[in-house]
Design goal:
Number of helices: 3
Shape: elongated
Number of strands: 11
Order of helices and strands: HEEEEEEHEEEEHE
Number of domains: 2
Strand content: 35-45%
Strand order of the largest sheet: 2-1-5-4
């Protein structure tokens, strides 16, 4: 089974997803590096997906870490790049929900900081001086 179909089963059909037989994850909020997936199996009776990775401990981050010095250094952001809005694959992630999202570093296809642009991009009022972080994994 491919990763896209597994995401669909997890999100639309309510399957429970286990990563490396240990950790239960929500694929709607957990973005995996597809090159690191060795196998995906589905058990229709128990509605369980099992995702097995080649490297069982890939590097990942939580969206709350985007302001950290380590994250900014890795993605060549300046310390002044304070992020007010995050858009992940076209979906605005509320600041209170960032703790629920986990992304493997190698799953990122593109990462872009747009400075002083949140009011313009999202067609909402703003004070200016805010930055938008756009992350694409697809």
């Amino acid at each position: 089974m491919n990763y896209k179909k597994a995401r669909s089963l997890d999100i639309k059909k309510g399957y429970k997803t286990l990563l490396n037989k240990e950790t239960e994850i929500e694929l709607e909020k957990y973005y995996l590096d597809t090159k690191n997936i060795a196998e995906i199996t589905a058990d229709r009776k128990t509605k369980t997906l099992n995702i097995f990775q080649s490297n069982n401990e890939p590097e990942s981050f939580n969206l709350t870490e985007i302001e950290s010095e380590e994250f900014k250094k890795r993605y060549e952001m300046t310390n002044r790049d304070n992020i007010s809005l995050v858009v992940l694959n076209g979906i605005l992630v509320d600041k209170n929900e960032r703790k629920d999202y986990r992304i493997e570093h190698n799953a990122i296809k593109s990462l872009l900081v747009i400075k002083d642009a949140d009011a313009t991009i999202l067609n909402c009022s703003g004070n200016g001086g805010k930055n938008v972080l756009i992350i694409l994994t697809e």
